[in-house]
Structure formats: C-alpha cells, structure tokens
User: Fold these one by one.
Assistant:
Number 1:
Amino acid sequence: MKLDRLVGERFKERPSDCLVDSHAFMVRGGYMKFVTTGIFSSYMPLKRITRKIEQIMREEMDAVDGQEVSFPVVMPASMWEESGRYESIGKELMRFSDRNDSPLVLGMTHEEAAVHLVREFAKGYKSYPFMIYQIQTKFRDEARPRAGLIRVREFTMKDAYSFHTSQEDLEQYYDRCHKAYERIYARAGLPEVVSVASDSGMMGGKISHEFMLLTPIGEDSIVLCDECDYRANMEAAENILVTEKKADAPLEKVHTPGAHTIEELTAFLGCKEADTCKAVVYQRNADDKYIVLFLRGDLEANETKLTNFLGCDIHPAFITEESGLCAGFIGPVGLDADAIVLYDSSLKGANGLACGANEEEHHMTGLDMDRDVPGAEFHDFAKVFVGGICPKCGKPALRIERGIEVGNIFQLGTKYTESMNMTYTDQDGSVKHPIMGCYGIGVGRLAAAICEAHHDDYGPIWPMSVAPWQVHLCGVRAADTAEVREVSDKLYNDLQAAGVEVIYDDRKVNPGVMFSDADLLGVPVRVTVSPRNLKENVIEVTSRDKSFSAKIPVEGALEELLKIVEDFKKR
Amino acid sequence: MKLDRLVGERFKERPSDCLVDSHAFMVRGGYMKFVTTGIFSSYMPLKRITRKIEQIMREEMDAVDGQEVSFPVVMPASMWEESGRYESIGKELMRFSDRNDSPLVLGMTHEEAAVHLVREFAKGYKSYPFMIYQIQTKFRDEARPRAGLIRVREFTMKDAYSFHTSQEDLEQYYDRCHKAYERIYARAGLPEVVSVASDSGMMGGKISHEFMLLTPIGEDSIVLCDECDYRANMEAAENILVTEKKADAPLEKVHTPGAHTIEELTAFLGCKEADTCKAVVYQRNADDKYIVLFLRGDLEANETKLTNFLGCDIHPAFITEESGLCAGFIGPVGLDADAIVLYDSSLKGANGLACGANEEEHHMTGLDMDRDVPGAEFHDFAKVFVGGICPKCGKPALRIERGIEVGNIFQLGTKYTESMNMTYTDQDGSVKHPIMGCYGIGVGRLAAAICEAHHDDYGPIWPMSVAPWQVHLCGVRAADTAEVREVSDKLYNDLQAAGVEVIYDDRKVNPGVMFSDADLLGVPVRVTVSPRNLKENVIEVTSRDKSFSAKIPVEGALEELLKIVEDFKKR
C-alpha cells in the first residue's frame, strides 16, 4: 500500500474531546471516525488491526474445539422473552418493531441465540460437550459511551458458548478457555493482562472472571492483594471487617446544628468516621420504592452488591418531603418510612456509634446495634478499601488499581437452558438441562487496550502480530532523487513479493512529516531509504519501539529485512 | 473436524416450507436455522462457505486497489436525512430511536456512511480516484422474504464505493470492477453468471448492471436477445414497438354487457388484444392520488418505469365510488377524475382501438389517439415481451428468462456527494463534487446461488474454492474394525497436517447414513476407507459431482490425495 493512496487524515493536534491516548492516536492517525455517540467507522489501518485480532481469536477458539457459527444481529423479542431478559435488562437493550409491528431487539450478547441454535440438536449426552462461537457486530445502548473504542455502543465481539453435562466438565472447559484467553492476549501483545474474579451481573451464573489490563485510565476498580494472588473486580470483592467492641454507652439524642454530612458530624462530635453509622438511600428503578442502606461511616456502598441482593436495578434516591425520610439525619432507630432497610456487615455487633435521629438537626450517640436494632440482618454491601483484609489470605494487604476489562468468561449454569427449555437425555435415561459457559472479548476495545499499553508520545507501537503493516518504508526524497526512487521501489516490490505487508511512503514531503506519520501508524519495523544513507550504500532500519536500529548494506537488504521481520514476529 | 462433533442436524425429509432447493438442502444439511422471518443463524458448514466467499471478494477488491474499511450497522437518521433517503425510502429502512430519543436507522446500504467517512479527506484532485469497501451485516425490512438465503432481511454484503474526478475515470474504474466481479463469480464456481443492464432504483444514477444467475427459481425477469448480446433486467428493458395504422373509423360508443376484462371485450367485439387500449390504475403511496396508465391491451405495465417517471412509490389502486373512475370501463376520452393520466408509447399514433367509455357496460370503438386524445404525451411504461424488438440490434428476437441477482454495480454520479456536500478542488482551482460508483454482492445469496446452480437430488455440490471442507473422509465401520480405524485415523491426521481441510466421519452408523450425510455436506472429494476396500489394500476416492472415481493403494495414498485435491482446486 502506498501511503499517498491511504484514505484517512493524519494530523498533529490532539482533539480536545479525546480523553485517553488510544482515542487521540486513533483519531489523529486516521484509524477511526466519529459517526454518532458511541458509534464509529474504521479506516483501513484499524480494519487491518481488528482483522488480525479476530484471526488470533479464531485460531485460539478453534484450538479449544470451538465451531464458528453466526447469530443474527437483529433478533425477535420473543427469544429474549423466553429467557426473561427482555424484561430484566434496561435501556441498554435496543428494542424496536418491524413493518409488521413485530418487536425486535439488537443483540448485545447471544446466549438466547446460542441456545436457540442448538436446542434441538444436542438431545443425547454423547453430543456434549461442545462449543460454538461467532465474531459479530453487537449493539448496547450505553448511557455513557466514553474513551473512543474503550466503551462504545456498536462493537464487534467474539462470543463463545459451551454446553456441558456436568459442573466438573464445565469447570475443566472453563479452565481451557481461560488459558486460551491468556494465549489470545499474549499473542496480541498484551501478556500483562490479568484475570480477576468478577460479578456476573445480568448474565446469570455464579463464577466469572474478567480479564483486565491495569491502567490508570481504566473505568474498573480492581482489588489486588500484596501478599497473595487474590484479584477481584471491586464489584465482586468481598469486604472483610473486624469490629472492635467499645465501652457501653447509652443511646442519647444530641442537637447537632449544621452537621449534615459525616465530615460535619465527626468534626462536631470529635469522633472518627468509623465511629458513625451512615445511611445511603436508593430507589428501585421499577417503582421508585426507597431503599435505605446503613453502613459504617468510613465505608462506601457497593451498588453492584446491593443490586445483586435485591435482584433489581436501583438508582440514587431523590428524597421527597412525603417520603418520611429526614435527609442528612436518617438513622436506624425510630425510622418511620415506607422503605426497604438494609444493614451492611460492618455494623454487625458494632456499638458506641453516632447516627441520624430521623429529626432535623439531631443525631444519636451510643448506638449499639445488638441492643438498639434487634433482629437486624447483616450482609456485605460495602466496597473494599485500600489496606483492607484479603478474603483469600486474611492479611490486611489489599490495594486498588484501575483497569480496562478486555474480556470476560462466565460459568452460566442452567439459567438459559432451563428458561428456554433445552434438555438432553443423560446416560441413566433422565432428562436434564445442559450447563453452559460463555466467553467474550470485544475486538475494538482490545485494539484500544493494546494502544493504551503500547505507545509513546508520538503514537501507537503496535506489536507485529496485530500491526496494520509489518514494514513502514520511507523513501526520503524519492520523488526527486532517482537513486532513492529506484532502491525504495525495488524494496517495496521485493518485500511484497516475499509476503511482507508494506506501507510505502514515497510522497514529496519533508522527512519530518514522513516520520511523524510513520509514528502515528505505529508499524513495528521502519526502513528508511535516503540520499544520505545511499551515499554510504546503506539503508536504515529502526524499530518503532526504539529498541533496535541498524544500517544495512543495500546489497542483500531484502534477505536481511526478511530476517528482521521474522525476529519481530517471535518477540 | 470429526462429523460426530459437528453441531447441527442433518435429515432426510424436505421441509414443506422450503420452496427452492438451496433452502431445502441448507436446512436439511445443518447449514442454517430459521430465527424469524428473513433472519437466520448459520452453523459451521455455512459459516465456512461464507468466509471463503468473503475472502475471494476481499482479494478481488484489493486487486482493484480497494481499501477495506468498516461502517456502522446502526447509523444516525441525520446522515440519511442529508442524502434525502430518510424520507424517500419506504419501510425497508428500519427506523428506531435510542434511549435519548435520537432517531437511528439500520444500514441497508452505505453510500451515506461512505461519503461521511471520506468527505474531509479527499479535498484535492490528487487524492482521486480511490475505492473503499467493507464486508458487513445489513438489514432491510423486506415485505416478502423468501427462498431461504435468496431474499432475507438480515444479510452480509460486500459493498464498495469509488470516488472519481471525471465520468471517464468512473467508467474506466466501473469496467475494472465489472471484471473483478466476473472473477469473483468464476472463482466461487459460478462462471455462468451474466451481467445485465438494470434499473438504478433508489440508488440514484443512470448506468447500472446486475449480475444474474439464470435459473427458473429466480425472482427477476431477464430480457435477452437471441441475435445479439443485449441483456437487461425486465425493469430496465426498453420496449420498442412498431405501430401499424389502420383504416380510419369513427369514435362510437358501444353497449358491451358483461365485458369487464380485455378478454371479455375482445371476445365480444371479435378483435385482438392489440386492437384495444386498456387502463391500469395505481395510487401514489404518499397521498393515494390516482394514476391512470393507458397502454395497448396486449401489453403489461412496468411499475419500475412508472415509479422512475413519477419519482415516487405507487401501489395498485383501490378504486372507490367517489373516485370518478368507472372500474372496467376506463377510457381516455371523457375521463373525469382527479388523477394523473399517462400514455404508453404503444399508443402513439395508434388508431382503430377499442377502449372504455367511462360508463358502466359501455366501450368505445374506433379510438384514434391523434384525433381523439390530442396533446397526449407518450412514454415507455410497458414491459418487454417474448419476440419483442431488441433495442440494440433491432431484430424481433427478445426472449425472457428468470434469474437470481447475485450482485450489482452502479454509476451513482454526484447524487450523494452533492446532497452531502463533499467537494474537492480540481486542477484548475474550481470546486467540484466527486463522482461515485458503488458495487455490491450479498454473501449469503451468492452461497445459495452456487447451491442452486450446483446440486443433485441428494445435496449441494460445492466447488472446491468455497466448500466447507476439501475432503470428506468416511471410515466405514471404523468404530469396530481396527484396520479401518488405523488407516482412516492416519489419513485424517496426515491430510490435516498437510493443510487439507477434512471432515471425518468415523461414526458407528451404516454406510448409507454416512454417504447421505456426505451428500448433504457436498464436499468435493470423498475418501472412503472400508473393510472391503482394505482387503484389496486400496481406498476409494470419488468426487461429489460423480465425474471422478478411483481406487488408490493405501501405500502412498496421502501423496495421491494431495494431488487430487490440487487438481480439484484448479477446476
């Protein structure tokens, strides 16, 4: 490919709406173009990258006996009604109707379609296990698309579905897929991706893992232990607490003028945040019913844990005068409101706490949960914190990092096979529902994550395995220097004939423009043919990551370059 | 791949809802599964076929300097409003709104997206010509999906868009693409596909061609000349007529009791259909305004020509009592109705015609168009007929055949670049709109067309270039014959190691089931290892199309088979 024919613009200024580097480079380098919120078109360089990523995924899925199939983008609502998700999923599921008013949805994931495809096929236990996968466009009507390809509405995903006759078989296969995922990231140039235990959310099932690239721009919080290999998504990380009993104190109402927040209250009373019991109020999306969560004042509520416990979607509350809730002064004693009241484990057995008195400008002190709130049930609703106790090794060694989720795998159980009535006859003649696993990676997000992990100030540094081209050939002054023209044209043709993917810049532009464009395209091996080098009868070979630089004789350059490209493939 | 692991059912009975062979075989052979009207999932065999077809398309598009990009499936309505197609296209364009009530559409074609992607890029004439293409899912809310993959709602299409600075350049490139399309069909095993001049319909532009597989199950009518190479879609074929003057006759009203149709009228009057002037009535979709077309009684109206002339969509009329139209007796003289009245060229200069008298049970005779309908304008609104005059060579040698459209190419002109304001500065400094061409092939429909053209009573006969596998290995009684097991397992492994795609049937089923399953999968080369053959120390090689059959020694079988596979690739 000659660079002067490449469709797409490259430019220097970082667009102000690009908050992360991968987004900025992909816009500046002519990789992608904004169409509407969370929806992009791709130019050739990005298309070449994503096709290579897809091929790596395909090979690794085939290697774990996957069968490539395809499911529709547009599906009948009835299929999603069978699983119950037509009702349970919120606005992310794009719903619409066709010319005959038949309700349809855009696939955001394909568990239903997978069960639909195979449910008449696998009637006997001998057909199991099997795995089907596709690489297909999906749509999720995200409320807040962000960061270029990191969180979009339309995306291409490799999604796989496995079917099993026992939990043991699923677990074995789940491990194989886990390893296949590790190979995918390693081959795509991201061996640093780690897997963390995660929350299964709307997918159903219990055990699931997310694959995370740790990076400050990530939108997920990852909990890691400094003392062991515990890793979990904040949403799923269990909060372990040790509650120390204080001296007994009576429950007393205190006038606390101006103390509306925990900070103001602790300043007023001269106590620590951990010595208070605070209230966080939500409402159910469906009917706006209030949910009051009490937890220790130094902790934060984990909405995912709350949602999972309640089995429904919630949002931060808008507290009305009629609610019976006295905002800023809500406490567990004497609360008189039509609300679901929940208690976090951090309050279990706690005493000597300050809390709201359910009355303007008043708090209580000396709250003893066992004594004053008898019958309260305690569950884990709080976020883990730095220095918290590791649920695996028990040491207070938790730290929190940010990460981009670049893949996830789920043990789904029988949620879909039961609801959609997929059955098989087992060896003993009994009729059972198969157990499912599912396994997804977003293609575009992985491309963006590679760029986040591998770039410098001037552009992406693509690994050879996914680079849009393998060699970037710069013919400096080729337009008006016959010798450069001759040597670089010949190299272009010879390299291509040898099967190397070459982007060739023979434009009449100054070397600075050539090199900054090359930086933006991020091709791993750069070959420069220039009048100055040719005087020494050499050409220059450098790597995009600056780890390699050499001058090689024009004579025999092709063979030498082929060796270098092969070396880079093995890196 | 082992056949016993292959997901999907194969069965014998032809499903009653499968009207064409490709549909029946693809359902019976475990290629596809119905999801909802016009929407299917694909199993592995079909997915492998379509991926091979896509790769052929990709290579041929790259060979004509195409750049693979990707456009979104979901696009903002505003983009289609720019081109005017948001209004002009009917219900086939799937319209819906997202969570913020922003109107969106599902892409059924991507001219708008193509212009959007490049309009800031190609500001100077030197950037031209260029071509971008994608292979992507599309959705068209067809009123009448039919025939399996032949006419669906969701489909994968290769669509390409070229941009030019002159009509000559477009025409040159259009020819290159025409040839690339011929290569695609030839490589996919359909060299018999022909191109025909076609109507450009909603795409805009003047010159366009459709690529047609001639087959009785096709839904298009193709006009061909027996005397020259004229070929056109019925929708676009010009109707050439010679009108013979008859003796003068006065215009007279005749009582024609019971003569409501042309047949009844000609029987009553004892004249030929060609001696009548009939009326065909439509209504505009937008406002139901009536359109009355008069044409010679032996001809049929061509709705496409009418639609193109009117510039709006129409439907057959529902004639009310208030319309002023006297159904069955409508004639051009004394017609008193609020309607657009059109005259087909077949009536130009005609005389001695019978026609309706705009009065129940009455007709006129002796109609002379020049005398009785002065000022009428005549246009070509009629369908060509068998034996009609060829517009190219002028001989009365037209014949009509059925065909499946398997691709189309359009010279679009500046319809999209003007409406979406894409401009470039020409060599002379003037600002112009680039001229576009577009080029599309549906992947699934091509797969179905290959199956229609190449099958027998037992299943598809896939060409090697698109076959789901290259070799179908049958290990007859492998399950309980050690020698068969040994030889066929070894062949399976050796062939795969040599890069051959093998589907291996080692199931414990009788040979009849094995062979009928193999027929349904349609793999070109079949290798049978059986106890009987092994007694002679040979294996049997046959081709799916029955053109080839041989017994080859077990010793050296691999090398011999590799040669056979190579031979089939060259066919």
Number 2:
Amino acid sequence: MKVLVVGSTGYVGMMLLRILSSHPEIDAIVPVSRSAAGKRLREIDPALGPAIEPLLAGTDGRLVSLEGASPESADVIFSALPHGAAAALVGPFVGTTPVIDLSADFRITSLERYEAVYATKHPYPELLDRAVYGLTEWHREEIATAAIVACPGCYPTATLLPLLPFTDIVRTPAIVNALSGISGAGRKEKQDLLFNERSENANAYNPGRAHRHVPEIEQELASLEILFTPHLVPLKQGMIVTTVAELSRDISQDEAEQRIRDAYEGSSFVGLSPRGIPQSRDVRNTNRCDIGVRVHGTHIELFSAIDNLYKGAAGQGVQNMNVRLGLPEHLGLRAHGEF
Amino acid sequence: MKVLVVGSTGYVGMMLLRILSSHPEIDAIVPVSRSAAGKRLREIDPALGPAIEPLLAGTDGRLVSLEGASPESADVIFSALPHGAAAALVGPFVGTTPVIDLSADFRITSLERYEAVYATKHPYPELLDRAVYGLTEWHREEIATAAIVACPGCYPTATLLPLLPFTDIVRTPAIVNALSGISGAGRKEKQDLLFNERSENANAYNPGRAHRHVPEIEQELASLEILFTPHLVPLKQGMIVTTVAELSRDISQDEAEQRIRDAYEGSSFVGLSPRGIPQSRDVRNTNRCDIGVRVHGTHIELFSAIDNLYKGAAGQGVQNMNVRLGLPEHLGLRAHGEF
Amino acid sequence: MKVLVVGSTGYVGMMLLRILSSHPEIDAIVPVSRSAAGKRLREIDPALGPAIEPLLAGTDGRLVSLEGASPESADVIFSALPHGAAAALVGPFVGTTPVIDLSADFRITSLERYEAVYATKHPYPELLDRAVYGLTEWHREEIATAAIVACPGCYPTATLLPLLPFTDIVRTPAIVNALSGISGAGRKEKQDLLFNERSENANAYNPGRAHRHVPEIEQELASLEILFTPHLVPLKQGMIVTTVAELSRDISQDEAEQRIRDAYEGSSFVGLSPRGIPQSRDVRNTNRCDIGVRVHGTHIELFSAIDNLYKGAAGQGVQNMNVRLGLPEHLGLRAHGEF
Amino acid sequence: MKVLVVGSTGYVGMMLLRILSSHPEIDAIVPVSRSAAGKRLREIDPALGPAIEPLLAGTDGRLVSLEGASPESADVIFSALPHGAAAALVGPFVGTTPVIDLSADFRITSLERYEAVYATKHPYPELLDRAVYGLTEWHREEIATAAIVACPGCYPTATLLPLLPFTDIVRTPAIVNALSGISGAGRKEKQDLLFNERSENANAYNPGRAHRHVPEIEQELASLEILFTPHLVPLKQGMIVTTVAELSRDISQDEAEQRIRDAYEGSSFVGLSPRGIPQSRDVRNTNRCDIGVRVHGTHIELFSAIDNLYKGAAGQGVQNMNVRLGLPEHLGLRAHGEF
C-alpha cells in the first residue's frame, strides 16, 4: 500500500511518518511538502532512522511537491496542513482516493459556523457532507466508507471520549478544563512558544467559549454546552482533561465506571485507567485515551489523558485509515506509554 | 532583629532563609533543624552564598537544635515543620514571642475538623483561638496583634484571593481547578516525586472534596462550597488556579474587574494581571498574586497565579511578620517575576 | 518464545517489557520481581496497555517470584538487577538458558578489578569467563554463542562506539565528557533525584577516574586511557558524549568520517548523523547511536548520542538476544527518534 | 541616579531591568527600545510588578526611542543590543557618559579580528582602545575609570574565571566543554529554540575553534589556546563549564584549591563551591561563579557554574557599573541561588 502525506514537516506530519513507517501494511510513503520539496527527508527530520529509506524509494528519499507526487496512484491521502490549505489541496481527490484529513476543514458540518470560526471562505463547501467526523470509537461504521475522514482536534478527542457516555444525565454547561503540551500549538516560530517562555510556566488562555474547538465539541454533544478553559503546561506531548458537570439524576460510582466500560468494550485504546485517575505519561506516544470518573454526590467528574500528537492527531488518523481500509483497527499503533 | 527558623531544610524553610537574609531589618537568623543540627548550613544548602554568614554569626554558621537556639531571645519564630510537629514545637512560645506558623496546625479553627482532616491529636488545642488566619490582604488588623499567625496553604491562597471578592454573587459549588508545581509536595524522598516520574507528566489527584485544603478554603468562604481538583504539572515553583462559578445575579465584565481593584486597592502584591490572564512565570520568586476575571454570561471565571513557595508559603509568612512587627508590609519581598 | 525478565520494576526492566511486548518473536513474558511478586503488572506499571495481557497469560498478568517463574522453561533470561544481586540470581541458569545480563556483574573480566570497583564479593567468579561483552557491533560472533551476554553500561556504549574506530591513532588520555539524562541514575528514592532538585539544574560529578564505568571502558580500549567526566542534565532519557583526543598522526576530515562508515557498514543502528553533530532527541526511544566527528588539526573530536535506557540498556539487550538466538539483529527495535 | 537601558526587550535587557529596579542607588530607569517605543513596559514584560512604576516616572511607564531618552542626562548607559547595533548606538556618548556595553562590539581589541569573527564593519573603530574588558574580578582598576566597559560573554566569563589562575602551569590546548541554558541563544523566533525542539534534547554545536567566543577567551589567556565545545541543554538559565588541561608541572590538590582562594580573596561572588563541584542551580539568578578544581596526576580539571543571564551578562554589567561609579561592588546583586 502506498500513502501520501501532505504536510510532512509539521509536528503532526512528522508523527504520521513515524507511525506509517512502522505499519506492517505500508510499502511506500510519499512525503509531500510545499516549502521543502526536493530536500532529503532525513536531512529535514534527522531523527528518522535509515530504516525509512526503502519506504521512500519512489521519491529517492526526498520530499516532493504535490504535482510530483502522483496522488492518483496512492491508496490513501493524509493531509496534515493548516485549515484552509488542507481543503484546497485535497479537494480534487475526494471521491477518488480516501482522504484522512487532520485539519479543521471538514470537522464542522455547518458552512456558516465553519466560516465564522475560522474567518475564511471554505474552498470546497460542496464536500462538507462527504466528510465523516473521525472520532473512531463513535463513528466506525460511517468511517469505513467515508470519502473524507475529518479527524478530531486533540482537545475534542480528549473531551468527548469521557463525556459522551454521560450526555443523557448531565446538566448544561459542563465545566471543562484542559491541559495541553506545547506541541499542540504547532511548529510555529513564535516568541511565546520558545523554550525560555514555556519552561517553568503554565497559564490558561482563550477561556469560556473563545477557543475554536468549542463548536466542534458541542456539535458532537448535541444539546449539552460547555465552558472550556484550555491551559498550556510545559510538556512536549501530552494532554489532560478534567470535566465537572452537575448530574440531572443520581448515579453510583459503580454505575459511572460501568458506563465507560460499556461504551468502550472491545476497544483497543480507550478505557478506564488502572490508576483510577490517568497521568499523561501513561499514554505518551500511544493511541490510547485513559479515562477516570468520580461521582461527587450531585456532580460527576471525568478525567482523560491522551498524547495530543498521537491519539489527538496522527495516531487517530492512522486508526481511521485502518478502519477505512478494512484493516484491524489497532494495526501499527503503539499501546505502551512511558514511565 | 533576630528570627528563629524552625525547619530549615525543607523547601519552605530554604525559601524563608533566602528571603530573610535579604530583609533589611533582620540582623540575625537562627536556623533550627532536628535532623541536621550541628552541620554547617551552607553545606546543607550550598546555593546560599557567603553573604549569609554574618547573619548566622550567633550559631557559627551552623544549624542548631531548638534547645540550643535560645528561642526566648528571638523577636519572631517561624515554623516550617510538618503538621503536628509544628504545634508541638512552637506551643511553648505562644504568647511570649510572635509565632509565624507555616504548617496546617493553626489554620482550622474547629478542633474536631482539624483532627478529622489530619488524623492526629492536636497537641495544643487551647491555642487554636490564639491564632489568626494569615491571608494577609484579608486579615491585616488581626494579624498585627496575633499571638500566632497561621499562614494559609498555597492552594487556599491562590483560590481565595480571586474568589473572596465574589462570594456574595456566586452559587455553590464553585468549580476550582488548580495546577501546582512539584515543590508543593515537599522535599520527600518519594518515587512519584522523582524527576523521571514528573518530567513530561501531568495529572489530577485527590479531586472533589478529598484534598486536605478544602476545609481550610471553605472556612474562609462561609456558606460557599467548592469542588476542588488539584493537578501536578512539571514546574518546580508555580501555581495556577482556574475557578468557574454560576452567578446568582448579572455582573458586567467591567464591574467584575472593578471588584478586584477595589478589594486590593493599595496592595503591593495582589491585583489584576497586565495580561488579562496571568501566567505562572509572571510571579515566580515573588510575593505577588496576579488575577484575571472573565464574565461568561451566566458564569464567572477567575484566574490566579502565585509562586507556591513564595506567596503560597515563605513570602506570605514574611509579609505577615512585617505586619505583625509594624514594618512596611512589602519590606524585603520580591516584586518582579521571571520572563 | 518465552522470556524471563528478572527485575521488572526498575527503569531498565520497564523498558525491556515495552520492547519485548512488541517483539514479533516473543509469545510469553514472565515478569519477575522480588519486591512486587503477586501484584498485577499493569497496576505497578499503568502505562503498559491492555495489549500486554495475552503475553502475560502464564502468570495471570502478575509479577512472580523467581521460584514461581519456572526459569528452566524460558528461552532466554534477562537480568535487570543491581550489581551483586544479578550474578547471584542468574548464576544457577548459566549454561542451561542464555542469560542477557544488564548489570555490571559480568562486564569486567578481572575478578580483582570487579571486586575493587564494586566493593563486593563476586558470587560466581567461575562464570566470569563464560561471559561476552555485549557491545553488539563489536562482538557479534562471540555473542552468538555466549552463555552470558554482559551488556555494557550506557556511558561505555556511548563512549566506545565512536572511539573504537580511532584507538590506533589517538594519544592517551582521551578527554571524555558525557551528559546523561536522570533515568541513568535508576529509580531510587533519593533526594538528589527529585524533580525539584534536577529541574533547571546541571552538574558534573565523579570526574577523572572516579566513575565505575572507567575500568569497563578502558578494558575495551586496550592501552588507551581516558579522563571521564559525567554530567547530569535535565533530560528523562538521553545521553550525549563528546570526546577530544590528540592525534598521533594526521588524518583528514573525510578519512575520519570514512572510518565511522567502514566500522558500522551494514549496521542497522550505528552510523554518522545526518546533522553532522547528533542531538539526543534524534535517538530517543530508539536503539540507535548517531555519531559525529570533527578533525581540528592536531586533535580529533567525537560526538555520539544514544538513549541511555534503550541502546544504553534494554534495547541493546534485546539486540543481543536477537544475535544470540539467530534472529535478525534489528527485530522489534525502534529506529525513529523524536523531533 | 538615572540609568538608560538600550535594548530592554531581550532577555539580557529584561534581566537588567529587574536588577536595576531593586538597586538601592537607582532612582530612575529609562527603558529604550527601537521596536517597542511608546508601549507600556509592563505590558511588554508583565512579570515586572507595579513596584517598578515609580522608577519609570520620567517616561510615564513607557519604552522610549533613543531620541526621546535624553541620554545626555543619564548617569550611565547600558547597551543590551546585538553586535553592530550596540556600537552604532552608544558610540556618540562615549567619553560623556559611562557606557556599560553587553554586546560583543568592544570586547575584541583587534579590529581585524573583530571584523573577521563578526563579519561586519565596526562603526566606531577609534573607540576600541577606550574600552576595558569587563571581567570584573580581573580588571577592577581599569574598569573604575573606563569610558566603555565591554562586558564579557557568558561562555568567556564561565571559562576564564576558573582558568585564569592556572595559565602559567597548563599546556596548550585546554579542552573546554560548556553547557548552556537556552536563554543564551537570545529571544529569537527560531524553530530550533522552540520548547518542543529543546525539551528532552541536548547537543554539542560549533565545536573546536568555530564559536565566536573563542577569540575573546584566548585574548585573555595570552598564549594558551583552547578547544571549545559548547552544548545546549534544557535549562532556561544556567551554565556549567568543565575544562581539562595537561599540567606543565606537578601541583597538589591543596595547592590548586589555594590558587582559587588567593585569586578571589575578598570577592563577593567568585570562589570555591561548598559542594566541591558546583551545580547550576546553586547560582541561578545570582551574580556568583562557583568553582571546583580536581587534580588528576598529570592533568587538572576545572569546574564552574554561573547564571548565563546574570553573572554572564546583566549582573556582571551592574557589578561593573558599581565599580565604575565607586559604589560597593556587590550592591543590588543577588547572592543566593535556588535549591
């Protein structure tokens, strides 16, 4: 199988290359980059070992432009571009080749809402209804035949997985506090992402309803609203979400845990943490989402941990590729975290 | 002036020594330690520069036992011991010498609640009503004449300072999420405090009503209850608290900000952040608490940042000493954070 | 294939479990622990995902004591114990089952030197000549039939791989400066390994000829001596070694690079860095050693980067297992670092 | 006293503002910035507390352009600009107002060497001999009357202080390995200074004789040459230097230590570490340089620790200001590190 990765030099693209190059069903990878076409991939990303070279035989080890990539011959196209750019580039291939999109361009089903939130014109509005929201554990069947899989953002993934099993019994709004590693902000040359500005530093930002991921989360939650406060903490990779909501009816601790077990029965990657409350290192460099739940009388509290670049982006993308191509869902995805 | 510091080898004691040795009114410091009596302080704590030596002339540069410390000659006694031990040691001096206690032993006014929360007998229950809760900005007058100043914990300090100006207009419970640097857990030789266990790691713990600081916080809040979720993040020093509460009546953004300004008018250390939402580095190694506030329609959200060892412990202790001894409140305390 | 891992709860053992559980030829893992026998492995090490459970079927997911481990039925025994303890435990199986020892017990061929350096009696001195030094790239043939593979320490691995190709043309002593991540010090509950003591901190220690790894390194270098200065830096995993030595004859930059290429031709894991000078992240969580070399007129300078727990311990152990059992040397070992 | 700080928004300028605003002899600070003139300083640098406002009364709390700064009325001018820009800006004031320059522009006495190393024309070559090299402990007398104090770089400071007392008895070249925190690279928006690129990462760079600080160091060492290898490690602030050199005559450990004591007798900031080998945290946020020395038979090894932004830049600048203005050398400078 041959895969195209459009946007190979950002953190999500780099993680994709790592996962795909260890995937047992992938024979060829075509790394596409606008800015670095023509350069040797291992010079751009020296942490890739020589073992990736055979997979890059088709491009002689180099990044290529989209034009040079023969996208029509690919079995699947991954897009790891910024919003706007992603839709513009993959649009022409939709319907011909399965597209796994890691941008925001096909996540929001309402055109008006998308254009309001992202302050841009959508280049292919007619494709919005060809896309399926790629929160794998909740949309497997539709993903299996989708033209476009619109993979969720990291915040929505970590927020929705613990919360979806409880939407029928919590009152609006749920109070969501999220802690993200710095790679979630991308590989941008911005002063406030420098080591010296983030080391020994933590802060909240864009609170309430200001973060772009709020509409995406609420779209999946139906009538439940959230107050969402993201925080940056000095992790490279990792995300923790803590959600508190008032219950509309009593539930026992056992029943709450059982809801998680039931929702994710048979899942390779999502389930209750052996710790009770998960830690971000437990799932670093894995496709897992570890969950915890505590009932405090009138309120319920939910905990989740993911790796924002893995289950929150590239890993879930590959999981969706597996589902879309009829492969075992867990194939090629890491299961053991760090310590 | 001569000060005794009982418990000089933990993080709070070490921070106290740094602050006191730069304080313009302190002539002599007597560092007391049970475990390290007789050793040279600068060998135990090599980051102290030679400039501290003249202040230690009375003990020849050494740590001493309490017996060898001539506590009766001190102008003030600081206790930076674990709970239980603190009360037992300083009890005999109460009423004779002003005591600034940084433990939990005199924070909770109810004996039964103290003994339940800390699972220990209080050695001097008769002294509980001699203590004043040392949240300086809210109890200056009582602190000025107190026999014991019971300095707040770091979580209560960072939670109460932004929340107290709003207790009349928020509904119970307030949802409090706190992020703490690792030094908040003390200098214990525990596996889960090792660099390798905390680097690239973040997690919630003791959520809901399980943390020992909840009764202390609620005692100051009168009838308002909280759901409190502390998190550990890989900072050495620093604390961020984010609180969301439902409003019982409408309030504008301007009015909310004005409440903070009014509450802390004339304060050297507490006020609105120039950023809107504060960052932990802004107040690292300072006695400041920077505050932010956002009104989201039906709910209010409060943000605060402190250094858990400084304003959250040793710095507030010295601030209370200044108040107790009639010195300018800001004397010897740092005002500028890191960048 | 069934493998025993003796010492499963330290960092090296934990890394071994991760590698072995993704190894395509391993069917069963028996995790042995003295201190935690009887406990469920995933409760002790929650970052292990549920995917490890089938491999642990023989122990019902639990750690077992050595007595309960049926070591005679294993295809290979890994020892990740402290020195002294390792030899005592694996001694009885030597000659029956291949032993991959990650301790120092069989690295030093001279009994007197071992006992002097480690200040202990060797429990099985008669086995010293049954052991082969497991620096894979230099001793493949002997490893393939060894009763015991004595895997090198992390400092020796990172020092020897770049230096061995030049021993004929450098003068004694070579000046070796090594930077290690904190996990190199093990999972000990020691104050100076706490997050708060190592974050924002770096220092040299045990310089000159004082570190225990010096005799091990010099044993492989024959007549070349070293002055070795290790440093601790705030990395979780990672090691950088910089070596400067005077040349005994001229060599060009090209010739120097060619020596590295020749020495590691066909090697899956060791070679010149695409960067020129490697970075520790390039090889994090991989079995690689990336090398750089610079000729400065009269002197040569060598650079290397490894992951101290992977190529410097568990990964090289599995590489040696592969060689010992006639499997492809790279099997189950990661090749791509972080970014 | 009134001081001008030209270049107030880089890390060195920000550190200068912190030190100067706590200095007992400073009444007024004029913060100068080309890029941010007109903006409120506390909005640009929110970690500065309200306590700085009275010192900024002359500019109404704002950054100003050089033209608006009335530099002729200042008692001293600090320049914290990049090389080239620094000389161009402060040139006109030399001889009128004492200039403390923290750039490289006046460090190298040879015009040709300066222009070769920095690949730029010097805008005021005629001023080169008006400058004194500001390694305070070695040039106090000349600094006291200098028109320009050319403050050393951080690498030269940490290399020279331990090495200068031994230049008469070591053979060339000395092998110098330096570890620097990331702030040493400045506040540049460069991809390789992002948190995600530096966290969990360490590497050597520009080794041998390639780093721009080599000529500056060798100028002070007279006939001794160095091979200098800088490394980046994930510290925000901090620097460790380890130097190994062959001895030209025997020296005992005691004699070596005594040389350090003699060289720095009476110094407030430089001396032997109580630890033997210093750690970077010992001197974080201080003006100290802690030193260690070990004699290994034929070779000597030297260790030093500084804060690269404090003693390595802004702190030494203020120390030089104190000397130049006849104030006590230690005034306003911190002496106690972190723990």
